[in-house]
């Protein structure tokens, strides 16, 4: 009995010490590291209420280890070839010159002229072009996709990659550790059997790696021979083949890019690959000399919970602030943070025509509920919210004043704007902007009204508001 009494007393004393030491340590760390006031206050409060459990949760989910590691990689790795592209730097003119200057300083990437862009709607049109590019690859293929299914579409890509490897092409494939299968990733096994390097981003089943489970690589990049780039919102899966009459079709928009800006796409992939594997990609097979392929000024913008934190959102906010006539947004998920919501509603209040096109029903019903809870302030400010008809459209498009376009992988929700690793492309070309604006306008089927919100029952409004609080984890 004396032994157990001594143990209990020791545990009691230990808990008394931890009861103060742990929350004090978390408070000091959060005050030094957390810029978000709400997050800082929340973590401190949780740790003082439940010192042990709160501290464990803070260690797992409250510390951004990714940002620290990414900055180390930026310091250690020098991506070759940038100096050769200086002749293609472009100085934007007019109202958007302010935006170009800001994004140049923010991203540390120059605006590049001499590019061409082709819009590819849906997998029916995009996949054949992408597969044809791989079919003619001579030196390298790098591919990053959030979802890479092992279905008939995925198998077509695997088959072309295997044939490219047999020709001596150097290949690297990066898929997300959750989006392409957490417990089972069929496409990784198929590629590895063929001897093709394929890795899963932020994937681990070990408990000490759990802090990274909520951070996902949502980028979609394909680059062939370092010259032919593809990016946008399109994943690799049979659901994107609309003409095949699949059960749950997904429409989407992808982009084929050529010109000096492809170097920036290649560098974005190289950073992700180095971050995941430790291998640094270099040499002419991945970074060849590039020549002009058109006359469009473009720039890649990346964001993620690393050294690129919130850069895509900052670009969007600045573009909306500079808008004089119109802002068009098309997104599959629309639950932006308070900062984005404020800038968008202020634009509408000063007379800018703000149109937001969202699907009537997306492929995530919980996100739809959360979205519906945030619509009233936009309607009050005069924003026009349009519910697009089926099929569900996964495109992420932004057009400002029919002059500037911003396209890529970023959804307008908290996860994409802050937690995911995303990639967008800004295009300073009036023809592209007008074509994308016309496409967005063609999807405006039914306008949401205050009456639509008011007629929802109270229980549905409470459900929607509660789910909105969980947006970073949906």
UniProtKB/TrEMBL annotation:
Pfam families according to UniProt: PLDc_2
Domain PLD phosphodiesterase: from-to ranges: 213-240, 389-416
GO CC terms in record: extracellular region; plasma membrane
Bilayer-spanning residue ranges: 43-63
GO MF annotation terms: cardiolipin synthase activity
A GO biological process held by the record: cardiolipin biosynthetic process
Entries under InterPro entries matching the protein: Cardiolipin_synthase, PLD-like_dom, PLipase_D/transphosphatidylase
SUPFAM superfamilies assigned to the protein according to its UniProt record, in alphabetical order: Phospholipase D/nuclease
Annotated EC: 2.7.8.-
Domain of life: Bacteria
Subcellular location(s) per record: Cell membrane; Secreted
Coiled-coil stretches: none
Sorted UniProt keywords: Cell membrane, Membrane, Repeat, Secreted, Transferase, Transmembrane, Transmembrane helix
Role summary: Could be a virulence factor.
Record-given protein name: Cardiolipin synthase
Origin species: Neokomagataea tanensis
Lineage, highest ranks first: Bacteria, Pseudomonadati, Pseudomonadota, Alphaproteobacteria, Acetobacterales
């Amino acid at each position: 009995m004396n032994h157990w009494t001594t143990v209990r007393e020791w545990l009691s004393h230990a808990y008394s010490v931890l009861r103060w030491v742990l929350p004090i340590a978390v408070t000091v760390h959060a005050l030094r590291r957390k810029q978000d006031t709400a997050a800082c206050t929340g973590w401190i409060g949780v740790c003082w209420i439940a010192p042990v459990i709160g501290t464990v949760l803070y260690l797992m989910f409250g510390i951004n280890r990714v940002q620290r590691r990414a900055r180390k990689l930026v310091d250690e790795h020098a991506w070759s070839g940038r100096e050769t592209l200086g002749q293609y730097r472009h100085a934007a003119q007019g109202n958007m010159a302010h935006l170009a200057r800001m994004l140049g300083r923010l991203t540390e990437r120059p605006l590049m002229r001499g590019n061409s862009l082709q819009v590819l709607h849906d997998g029916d049109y995009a996949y054949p072009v992408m597969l044809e590019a791989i079919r003619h690859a001579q030196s390298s293929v790098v591919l990053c996709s959030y979802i890479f299914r092992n279905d008939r579409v995925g198998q077509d890509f695997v088959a072309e990659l295997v044939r490219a490897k047999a020709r001596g092409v150097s290949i690297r494939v990066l898929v997300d550790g959750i989006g392409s299968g957490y417990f089972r990733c069929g496409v990784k096994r198929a590629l590895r059997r063929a001897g093709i390097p394929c890795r899963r981003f932020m994937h681990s089943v070990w408990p000490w790696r759990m802090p990274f489970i909520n951070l996902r690589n949502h980028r979609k990049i394909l680059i062939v021979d370092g010259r032919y780039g593809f990016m946008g919102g399109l994943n690799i899966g049979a659901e994107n083949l609309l003409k095949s009459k699949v059960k749950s079709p997904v429409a989407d928009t992808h982009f084929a890019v050529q010109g000096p800006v492809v170097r920036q796409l290649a560098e974005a992939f190289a950073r992700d690959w180095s971050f995941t594997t430790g291998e640094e990609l270099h040499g002419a097979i991945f970074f060849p000399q590039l020549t002009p392929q058109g006359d469009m000024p473009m720039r890649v913008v990346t964001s993620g919970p690393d050294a690129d934190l919130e850069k895509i959102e900052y670009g969007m906010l600045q573009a909306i602030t500079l808008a004089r006539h119109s802002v068009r947004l098309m997104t599959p998920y629309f639950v932006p943070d308070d900062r984005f919501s404020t800038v968008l509603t202020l634009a509408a209040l000063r007379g800018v025509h703000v149109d937001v096109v969202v699907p009537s029903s997306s492929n995530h019903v919980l996100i739809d509920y959360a979205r519906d809870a945030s619509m009233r302030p936009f309607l009050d400010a005069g924003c026009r919210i349009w519910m697009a008809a089926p099929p569900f459209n996964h495109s992420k498009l932004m057009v400002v004043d029919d002059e500037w376009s911003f396209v890529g992988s970023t959804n307008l929700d908290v996860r994409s704007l802050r937690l995911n690793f995303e990639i967008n492309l800004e295009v300073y070309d009036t023809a592209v902007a007008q074509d994308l604006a016309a496409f967005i306008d063609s999807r405006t089927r039914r306008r949401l009204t205050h009456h639509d919100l008011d007629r929802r029952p109270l229980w549905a409004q409470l459900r929607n508001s509660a789910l909105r609080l969980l947006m970073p984890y949906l």
